[in-house]
């Protein structure tokens, strides 16, 4: 199996399966002398960790990360990166493979088991193996390293829709995101989601969600105008997350209903001598290159495929059958996708930051000198 590596200059290669001994990744291209400890990574893993509320899978994984290489503690007592590969390991401690023994030969509708068999001739039915969202824990770990590459970078995400129910953006409060189990910025909707998802969970079903990621402190100039568009790489990164079926940048699909006057992000000169955008319909990216505004991306997460409701399927021997998935699954996998989305955006931005630095060095002076 190829294509387990993400990125170019800042890149990581992930390894491991849902019910294997461990999962992990090797982060390559991280610049030297960046302060990095396990605690810096663990704070983000704890947001994604399962079993923290009744609204996520009850698999009890501490997701405790270990840094096995790539750091050094100097005489000042500060642990920093050395510029060599950073290896991160997370042990699996709460697998229940027997939960899947009854369905080992059946294909779960909406899951990757069938296509794995078609492509490789073998599939790990225990929690989905390599296809499991368990792999995303190491993305969060790699993303924690990526956040440190760009000085002043802030990457935050929030759940803005569950099922058909959207938040009220006039009530958006970032301070509320960490105060409820849904990472929701709208306190009123967070309370509604609690009752709504309880009903979904008790019925043995699942529901989808939309996550919004906002990156601030992104310098202008990241990206390229043709085959390395920043928005294209962000879309690819977010689409690579398990269960994601759609991505939009800025106003996204809503721009199809606009006219040019509404969609254009007009500009004026600011007091600091730099342009100020009067809106941000483009989501901080023009022509595939960052503008310096906040980068805004949203992605849609489908309902969890593993549900208790019996569904029609076939087995790997060509027989019609039915399947009901036991085990511990998220009634809304979109909840734990919030820190994963943050991590993938951070990884893309770190990669493009290093590529930009490699292309233009210190950059160019702006405003330009007007020719005589």
Task: Kindly describe this structure.
With 372 residues, the protein is of the alpha+beta class. 23% of the residues lie in helices and 22% in strands. The protein has seven helices and 18 strands. It has helices spanning 38-48, 113-120, 136-146, 187-202, 230-239, 260-263, 337-360, and strands spanning 5-7, 11-16, 22-28, 65-67, 71-73, 79-81, 86-91, 154-162, 165-166, 209-216, 244-249, 267-269, 275-277, 285-286, 289-290, 295-301, 311-314, 320-323. The strands form six sheets. The chain has a five-stranded antiparallel β-sheet. A five-stranded antiparallel β-sheet has the order 9-8-10-16-11. Strands 5-6 form a two-stranded antiparallel sheet. A hairpin with a 3-residue loop joins strand 1 (5-7) and strand 2 (11-16). Helix 1 (38-48) crosses helix 3, helix 3 packs across helix 7 and helix 5 runs antiparallel to helix 7. The radius of gyration is 22 Å and the shape is globular. The chain starts with a strand and ends in a 12-residue tail after the last helix.
Layout of helices and strands, plus pairs?
Layout (H helix, E strand, L loop, with lengths): L4 E3 L3 E6 L5 E7 L9 H11 L16 E3 L3 E3 L5 E3 L4 E6 L21 H8 L15 H11 L7 E9 L2 E2 L20 H16 L6 E8 L13 H10 L4 E6 L10 H4 L3 E3 L5 E3 L7 E2 L2 E2 L4 E7 L9 E4 L5 E4 L13 H24 L12
Helix pairs in contact: 1-3, 1-7, 3-7, 5-7
